[in-house]
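look at this:
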Amino acid sequence: MKARKLAVEGAIEFTPRSFSDDRGVFATPFQQSAFEAAKGGPLFPVAQSNHSVSRRGVVRGIHYTGTPPGAAKYVYCAAGRSLDIVVDIRQGSPTYGRWDAVLLDPEELRAVYLPVGVGHAFVALTDHTVMSYLTSTPYVADNELALSVLDPALGLPIPEGIEPLLSERDTHALTLEQAAARGLLPSYEHCLELEAELSAGSHVVQGTTGGLR
């Protein structure tokens, strides 16, 4: 598995080897040893697995979890094709306001790791685009926040020919500047602390269960 650091501090793209024959394709979108080598620590304790299905043109995001508790995510596309977008909204981060994008599909089976406090969006490029997530915290509606994916100051790469289909919540989401003015953005230092706590918790889990392999 190949790992590549993205333009957002702490975010990582993973590309597994795939094996094809006349039956189809086999690949492993997550490998513990590759993740630990790239991140310098274990995967967060997984609290929830999410699954979404979207038609072409659907844009979900920019979503993030308020801190605390914050949330780390590991995302891949199981069917269809999507443009996955990582946005650094952590105030004080060396890459604050920057974004990076990764094409996700079931052929390459790339996956993206999003550290605590980072914003996430994706654009469904085909009908029946299936996104799968592992998250470090369970979904709690009151903790979930959104920023405008169409914020001109961010200039996110919505592909030409795509007319964004947004939820009502995402349509009326704040810009990055508005959210900062209202004190709704996470602190980079606080996010690092929460990330360290997740890693420590993962070590505890591995120690009590004999490992996650």
About this structure: Confidence is low (pLDDT under 50) at residues 203-213.
